[in-house]
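Data availability (excerpt). The following record was deposited with the supplementary files.
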Amino acid sequence: MTDTVNAAPPPVTASPSVDPASAAPTTAPVTAPALATRPGRWIDNWNPEDHTQWETEGRAIARRNLRWSIFAEFLGFVVWQLWSIVAVTLPAAGFDLDTGEIFWLISIPSLVGATLRIPYSFLVPKFGGRNWTIISAGLLLIPAILLAIVVGNPETPFGVLLLVAALAGFGGGNFASSMSNITFFYPQREKGWALGLNAAGGNLGASVAQFVVPIVITIGAGATLNLPLAGWIWVPLILVAMIGAARRMDNISSAKADFAGSAAALREPHLWVLSLLYIGTFGSFIGFASVFPKLIADQFPEFSAIAIGGASISLAFLGALVGSLARPYGGRLSDRFGGARITMLAFAAMGTITIGVLLTLPLGNFWLFLGCFLLLFAAAGIGNGSTYRMVPVVFAVRGGAAAGSGDVSTQRRAAAALGLISAIGAYGGFLIPQMLNLSFQTTGGYAGAFLGFVAAYAALLVLTYVVYVRSGRLREHKI
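Predicted structure:
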């Protein structure tokens, strides 16, 4: 059923007029309707492709919405990754948890977040970008506050801890709705820049959470840990995001959910190929970012928390930071050399570096281990950018085969595919910790999992070459 309140006004059509001198019918020029606002910060007649509208009013409105979208999505990633650092500290706070249970607390937010990305991508047109940003940011209060409550009592059952950790998946879902919302605000020629900023701002939340939480829970705590602060400190910022979204963001009445485009994208074989590649790149980034604090604590416990003054710092935050900063370079290199070639190089580097991690583990050298992992994060970050860049190019080439490249139908399928691929790729955040957990439970170490990662990267490299690099027609389009 169509929401008549949110529906866009009917299009303005030209009507014939009569020249009084000749009585011959002529057509009056059509003027693009001006922007109109309604209560609830709804904007009608939004068209960023209209150059005049964009330069006079549109750009400023889009940038204002982008700033608050980045802030809200940043907090989403913060909440999404809180348990990656909190779970590692629970035994020191008196919780009786085994390694398998800790891995589940680390990985369950990624499982839930990846699943929520699919419905979240359709909720902006339903509620409005501003309205859904308020709601989705407000939902972050639930896992933040509940985390603060449950980690304050070491007697909390594991099932309750797991449920609260699962609710942190709300933060992972925010990425899809945030990216969907910003897509409606920007013209085609500036979408890449805007979406890149939006994604980078969100990804940095993982690094900030892993840097700030160890400091906050240890500063002034003496021999104990102030674990509840890991949740409470984000509550004021979430409230700021909600108020800022309410006062400074807008709803666009012309934003429509593209169910037909999503259905068409699901029938496209390349969606599933690109999803596998994105699991290998973004899935590796978010998976290793989640599990990095745990790996450091297990392999090099003396470096798990470095005391500085009255606080402790975990160097695990460097992984997510390096991966986030490397992502834009993947897109830039892809523009010059082609996304498939850069993706192949990224998988080659990830496989080689993972072998290096395997070789360094028996040496017991933390700094060598850290250096290898930071290189792995950098390669995964570059692969994120290059794989994401491939999506619209691949769909443009596929659309050109049947309907002329760049047509509206092709753009709709590409936009829908980006949302679906981002959701599927996020499942890597669950798979990687669980593979490490399985390896530890069966062999007592992580070597088996890392060997599996090497094999997966090799297979994905071959897949990229066979499907996109070897094909002459695709190579012509610099995929």
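Summary of structural features: The domain at 258-479 is CATH 1.20.1250.20 (Growth Hormone; Chain: A;).
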